[in-house]
Amino acid sequence: MTETALDRARLYQGELSAIRRDIHAHPELGLEEYRTADLVAQKLEEWGIEVHRGVGKTGVVGVLRNGNGQASVGLRADMDALPILEATGLPHASQNPGRMHACGHDGHTTMLLGAAKYLAETRNFNGTVNFIFQPAEEGTGGALEMLKDGLFERFPCNAVYGMHNRPGLPVGKFITGPSTRSAGGAFFDIVITGKGAHGAHPHQSVDPIVVACHLGTALQSIVSRNISAQDTAVLSITRIQSGDAYNVIPQSAVMAGTVRTMKTETMQTIEANMRRLATSLAAGFGAEATVDFRVIFAPMVNDTNEAIAYGDAASELVGEGAVRRDGPPGMGSEDFSFMMEQVPGAHINLGNGDSAALHNHLYDFNDEAIPYGVALYAAITEKKLPKFSPD
Ligand code: NI
């Protein structure tokens, strides 16, 4: 029997699990992935792959060419961790307190490394593969940093492919979809400036806390009153901070949160309404409000043909029954979206089995999923850059 991509990827299990656990034990926040980038570069070099450092600050791109083909693909993974105190108690738990690979980017980085090793050894393709190790996916702008550094001008790609693990989906199963896969996301900060006074003499104040309370309620009207019921949006205020004492009305209050939408226009509608409500409501109370609204993620939209090709590659590995091709879009966000705005591509979720949720302090990437990710990255490359057999 001939060796399948999955068989071969399984041969790397021990080596790759060790790499994954090493990265897990040494998590680094976005744009600080120095050790992780060193490790990635060292492994790529070890396997004879051309390495480019500092693409988007801590980003790394590996380039592997084979044959005389002009076509190229980009395979992308993210490398950053989160500001979470890990509570798994595992032997490979974080050694950096307050830093944790709670989204499985340790696994994603490892799977892309595995694919690089696989393709460097087998070379069953004709063209160029760009291995894109992206920093700072967790809302700190890593994809945009790489694009700003000329990612696709320096490393042209006809198509790009990304993946993310999914807790609750059995290992060996995949979910993708033909168009929108995840929401666009924005972060906002609102600063309300009033006038401080003694807590016993509120008439001498312009109380920013009262303004913040009203504004918190008023902002909830945007999704329910300004967005069509057939459209989708989330607006969450996740922080309100003000005051230091029982008897002091503070000078200011700050509010922060996130907005998620499936369409760029919906995001623009929410921003406009937030600005109007914040400034006019504050003015109504005699206070002032400033709004800083930053779009961090574009909606992530698969190219229909690339999603079919990616789904076909997955199906050839695990069988059509283990691949869902019409998965509904999620409200989470993924900044791979910005790469897919420039180059057609597709994103897929791979099963992480029965693990804790993403961004939970008990989460761990499932090492059993590694061969599936490795094999899929390799399979889509071989599918898109076919090597013609001599006969
Ligand atoms: Ni993630």
Write the layout of secondary structure elements.
Layout: H1 5-11, H2 13-25, H3 34-46, E1 50-53, E2 60-66, E3 72-78, H4 105-122, E4 127-134, H5 142-148, H6 151-154, E5 159-166, E6 174-175, E7 180-182, E8 184-193, E9 197-198, H7 208-226, E10 233-242, E11 248-249, E12 252-261, H8 264-284, E13 288-297, E14 300-301, H9 304-318, E15 323-324, H10 336-342, E16 345-351, H11 370-384
Parallel strand pairs: 3-4, 3-5, 5-16, 6-15
Antiparallel strand pairs: 1-2, 2-4, 6-16, 7-14, 8-12, 8-13, 9-11, 10-12
Helix pairs in contact: 1-11, 2-4, 4-11, 7-8, 9-11
The structure holds nickel (II) ion (NI).
Could you describe the 3D structure shown?
There is one protein chain. The protein folds into two domains: 5-180 and 302-384, Aminopeptidase (3-Layer(aba) Sandwich); 184-297, 2-Layer Sandwich (Alpha-Beta Plaits). It is of the alpha/beta class and 391 residues long. The protein contains eleven helices and 16 strands. Helix 2 runs antiparallel to helix 4 (105-122), helix 4 (105-122) packs across helix 11 and helix 9 packs across helix 11. The mean pLDDT is 96. The chain is elongated and about 80 Å long. A hairpin with a 6-residue loop joins strand 1 (50-53) and strand 2 (60-66). 36% of the residues lie in helices and 24% in strands. It has helices at 5-11, 13-25, 34-46, 105-122, 142-148, 151-154, 208-226, 264-284, 304-318, 336-342, 370-384; strands at residues 50-53, 60-66, 72-78, 127-134, 159-166, 174-175, 180-182, 184-193, 197-198, 233-242, 248-249, 252-261, 288-297, 300-301, 323-324, 345-351. Bound molecules: nickel (II) ion. The site of nickel (II) ion has 4 residues, from loops.
